[in-house]
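JOB MANIFEST
job_type = single_chain_structure
chain_count = 1
residues = 369
[input]
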Amino acid sequence: MQPECHRKLLFLLLGVLLMGPAGCESVRYYSHIASGQMHIVSQRQSIRDIITAPDTDPQLKRQLQQILEIRNFAQKELSLPVDSHYLSYTDLDRPYVVWNVSAAPEFSLTPKTWYYPFIGHAAYRGYFSKDMAMRCAEQLEKQGLDVYVGGVTAYSTLGWFSDTVFSTIIRRDESATAALIFHELAHQILYVSDDTTFNESFATTVEQEGLRRWMAANGNPLGYQAYVLQGRRRQGYLALVTTYREKLAELYRQENMVPEEMRLRKAALFADMRDEYADLKADWHGYPGYDNWFDTTLNNAKLNSVGTYYDLVPAFTQLLASQDGSLEAFYAECRILAGLPKSERSRRLLSLQPPVVADASPVGQTGRR
């Protein structure tokens, strides 16, 4: 690891500890984050060195060469700030680089948030260790919260470090790898403190538009058709999640309902949601892309994890269209939105939001992260 990287990590940790009163748990958490990031930085290898090394596995060479091509496309065709990002590779011995914990009250869709120095509040707590993430989840469950733990294959350090290519990324197919890199590079353009939904919906919009252009530029008509098919499945899935979030929100507004009755009705709504997913899957001719999501525990935190990434995507997509597809103009408009108070930013975006309509045709979606 370069000395400046050591200094940056030590500065970040020191800054965190000096922000104000912090309990032992906070110190342990930030020490865990700093040491986890330090380990990743220390394990990085130059992609170009790996590609030119005679003993490198040919498949790894091809995968890393494709990363460089995606990176070049992101810079030239999507106007994304690649800087020194994705020029190094880190081999991990685990399926995910980070596990995120999210939570919400039993009878509310308002997510629990955590405060982080420099970036503000976020609706998740990230861990480099799955065991630590699960222990955090257990503690939150003991407080009566709905909890969801999801694995993450990549993340952005928001300019603190040069982001690396993880082995968890290259295990994906070409389209998924490109989408992820476009998404994470979008965070380099703007990141608003205390507005996770804005940040992730913006990055997801850039991801989707970037992938569309990448596949078109590479003359992959079958791949593009598959992408369109997956996009339509995604819309059906999102419409289903949105419908049941609204039904649950209406249920939680029933102030005179006793907890036992509300708990039963909540369980019934999730059962109905699974039944409707089975119908949607049948329309998709058995496409199983969301089976794992529906087969595991459904709760408020899990529904929120979907909304964070997609809630405002239709509004951002409409904003991009209003700029005649110019990404530079789109980024400029988004920067203006980012500078507004959160209430005004939300109002403007919601005014662009088209109504969500489930697509019942026999096509369907893909998942991210």
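[summary]
Confidence is low (pLDDT under 50) at residues 1-23, 357-369.
The longest strand covers residues 98-105.
exit_status = 0
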